[in-house]
Amino acid sequence: MLITGSSNSLWSKYQDMQCVENCDDPNPARHVLYEQPVWQTLQMFLGEMLCFLPVIFTWLRSKRASQPVQLPVDSEEEPAAGPKAQLLQPEPLHGWRVLLLWFPAACDLTGTTLMNVGLLYTPVSIYQMTRGALVLFVGVLSVIFLRRRLWLYQWMSLITVMAGVSLVGFSGSLIKDAVKDTNATAIAASTLLEDVPPPQPIEEPEITKVLVGVFFILFAQVFTATQFVVEEKIMARYSVAPLVAVGYEGLFGALSIVLAMPLLARYADVSPFFDLPRGWYQMINTPTVLYSGLVIALSISLFNFFGLSVTRHVSATARSLTDTCRTLSIWIVSLGLGWEKLLWPISVLQVVGFSLLVYGTFLFNSLVTPPKFLRPPEDPIAAPDEDAERRTLLAEHVLEETAALPADLGQSGYDVMPPHEHPDGSTVVVPVAEPPRR
């Protein structure tokens, strides 16, 4: 997951840096780089469609063995026996209900396109760090639509994440301005020995471009957070294998882009981002763009597969930790490739912003102990374990004896004792941490 996730962002930035027109011109200012976020979004959805391959392989192998298809489920816990066992199992997602996945696919399409636009104006490390603001929007939307409750330390962690993102974006813009001024001075000094006039200065400052890119990335996180919330609502009601869900979202997203291409082509004069025939010509006639697109599609599919495997066999907390390490690895590789520079003391702001981003993410997931004055009085934070990500968003700590199931109340992590195993026939809800003695 770490390798494929990091390579996906790095290859996307590499694709944006490829010259596709006027590459033989000695003046670099006249070179045209590959700037096609719509085509890049399409290649991402094609990569998600590759998640169908292991599903099809499992189906074919089961047909040969004359056994039913066994797809991975979201939870490995066996439901309790008794009359309520059937209610604990959500109905399968099939038929026309599969079209419900079109809504998160549309959110994914919009968010990914906006992030691809932001990546054109920002370094890849700034792009990846700014995506860390996703936890803020997911937390807010979870409170509004999923009726969850966040503790004070979690709200403070969200504010810390936003402060870190702001410092990262600001420091990145200052670094690009400093690098631009240094390059301009070097070019001017070299041209004094020749009769060639120095290049004209760029009217738009780099700080404006970086801030515009950060704005696009932040705005994209709203749609990505909406996608996560809608997916959770669908998964809570219907049963579907994660790989199947990712494959369907890739299919619906690719169909949406293909159907929207005639409409987007009419706005080719407004922005080169919508000049899809020109983007197709650039992609086909530039081998580096074409091959990098294939690598991006493959890395997206593997990243989804490995990410789901980490969530299933380890925990969602481990997945968030790996994603944070991915941000650090992207920054280190970008420095090694020369895509970014370390400048004193501007780079210190970027390090501080990244540290705030990591600390806020860890604090939100209860991986670090919050300050005493921020701890919830009812339930002190214990040592982090594999169920930490489920405890952080519990709406209540005690369930009343009602006919509603824990899933209906937006809670998880409880075991329902069947009525026939209790002396008075009532239903008793017991926390998993203290299993009932039967």
From TrEMBL:
The chain crosses the membrane at residues 42-60, 98-120, 126-146, 153-175, 210-230, 242-268, 288-308, 343-365. Residues 409-438 are annotated as: Disordered. This is EamA domain-containing protein. The keyword Transferase does not apply. Keywords: Membrane, Transmembrane, Transmembrane helix. It is found in: Membrane. GO terms for cellular component: Golgi membrane. One of its GO terms (molecular function) is pyrimidine nucleotide-sugar transmembrane transporter activity. It is a multi-pass membrane protein. InterPro entries: EmrE-like, Nuc_sug_transpt, UCP036436. Its main location: membrane. It comes from the Eukaryota.
